[in-house]
Amino acid sequence: MAVILVVDDEPLQRGILKTILDSEGYETYTAASGKEALAIAKKIHPEIILTDLKMEGMDGIELLEAIPKEPFEPSIIIITAHGTISSAVEAVKKGAFDYLTKPIDKDTLLLIIRRAVERASLLKENIHLQRELFDKFKIEGIIGKSAKMQKPIEVIKRIAPSTATVLIRGESGTGKELIAKAIHYNSPRRIKPFTAINCAAIPDNLFESELFGYEPGAFTGAVSRKEGLFQITNGGTLFLDEIGDLSLPMQSKLLRTLQDKEIRRLGGKETIKVDVRIITATNKDLEKELAMKNFRDDLYYRLKVVTIDLPPLRERTEDIPELVNFFINKYNREFGKRIKSTEPAALKILSEYHWPGNIRQLETVIERAVLMNDRGTITARDIQDELPSGRPAGQLNYDIPDEGIDFENLEKELIQKAMIKAGGVATKAARLLGMSYKTFIYRLEKFNLSSSSAKNGKME
Ligand SMILES: Nc1ncnc2c1ncn2[C@@H]1O[C@H](COP(=O)(O)OP(=O)(O)OP(=O)(O)O)[C@@H](O)[C@H]1O
Ligand SMILES: [Mg+2]
Q1: Does domain 314-386 have CATH number 1.10.8.60?
Q2: CB atoms < 10 A from the CB of 238, how many?
Q3: Of 169, 174, 343, 428, which cross-links 422 as Cys (Cβ 3.0–4.6 Å)?
Q4: 367 lines ligand 1 (CB under 6 A)
Q5: Residues ≥6 apart with Cβ < 8 Å to 357
């Protein structure tokens, strides 16, 4: 049951309130002054404080202002005499939960108390969730003992408490969002919201209304006012994922907001000050986008005050055993399994794989291996079953340029390269490309390439 503190300098009133609340099963304490209330509150942490407004010494409003908000904020209900409702309203403005007027009606009292109890439990729940988030995103919880991860982790520790804008770069699945959250939850902003939006997934008009909000009538379908992410996140951190995909017009709008630190809702006149830390992420080569004039350089320099480069998993294979254990534990819990170990041979396969999808892909592989396993040990076989078969895909390191590619030529080049690498042995070259021998020979003939000319590495 909720703990309630009744504060009143009139002993009779105190007694009546305590009797009513006790009989409803609440754990009720009393204090005869604001000062005494403060002292008791520090010991019992009441969820609810029911206080008279007018008291000698510290009055109800002063008590409201002085009461500690930690470990959670109590809901304060102010009791006023008939003539002083305006001060009760003032108290509510200052953060009181509600007010009651004298003479106190028992049903109204109990109704307000019940609502306050509900709010208190929500607040407590929230605090609980927040604690979980703090723990989850502790920097110590980021797996990365490898040399390649040490630098980013050092940078994160150093810059998290500041308000510096951060650009996180890394291939897909390297942990960009995780790092963004770690920065937020290790900064003084942690008690304010962390929000995220993916710039690639949203068309411009929607992006604008998501970020800045709108007024009713701003466009067809805008029936009521909507607050944008900038306002919702005020005081917190906004994570803009895949920033490299933001259109040029949106880049200008974002830049202006970062410069002015204020926004205007679509269709609105009023400008609203916002204090939002921006973290962005990209797996694109932004410098290349700059050169191609797809990305504004003034915005780029504003975003990259701090840059964090996350290495691909294949370059930090020392971390694989710890990551594997971490994911085994996670999925043991989720699926009610009891897997205790991983065969060395399985770890070897995992360390040699090239992980185009990085940690996210590793997580999926372990998730499935845990789900399918009933023996308590993950074997090489389990891992082989879960890794994509055939040749690893996505390893070639080039983008499709804007002017497009000549696929036939590319195919020919790959076949030539495979033949050279295979020392002219067609069966081996076919295997390198993940093709059947028949398909490979067909292509070899199609391009007029012969296996003999490959041997000396000089194909026509
Ligand atoms: N160092 C790490 N320790 C533990 N888990 C990690 C680590 N890095 C990433 N992960 C986990 O891997 C998954 C992918 O990470 P995340 O979503 O942050 O990657 P991303 O770089 O944002 O990927 P994408 O580019 O595809 O959006 C998440 O489940 C995340 O919790
Ligand atoms: Mg991501």
Answers
A1: yes
A2: 23
A3: 428
A4: no
A5: 172, 173, 364
Distance of alpha carbon 423 from alpha carbon 452, whole angstroms: 10
Fold of 150-309: Rossmann fold (3.40.50)
- At 137 the pLDDT is 78
Successive 10-residue mean pLDDT values, the chain, 460 residues: 93 94 95 95 92 92 89 88 78 87 91 89 76 75 91 93 95 95 92 91 89 92 89 95 95 96 94 96 93 95 95 96 95 92 94 92 94 90 78 56 81 87 81 78 83 41
Answer whether the bond into residue 71 is a cis peptide, omega within 30°: yes
Residue 196, ligand 1, Cβ within 6 A:
no
The DSSP bridge pattern shows strands 75-80 and 98-101 to be parallel
Q: Provide DSSP, 125-181.
A: HHHHHHHHHHHHT-GGGS---SHHHHHHHHHHHHHTTS---EEEE-STTSSHHHHHH
CATH classification of 3-132 is 3.40.50.2300, yes or no? yes
Whether the CB-CB separation of 7 and 50 falls below 8 Å is answered with yes
Are 193 and 276 in contact, with CB atoms under 8 Å apart? Answer: no
Q: Is the CB of 280 under 6 A from ligand 1?
A: no
User: How far is the centre of ligand 2, averaged over its atoms, from the C-alpha of 286 (Å)?
Assistant: 16
The pLDDT score that the predictor gives to residue 390 is 47
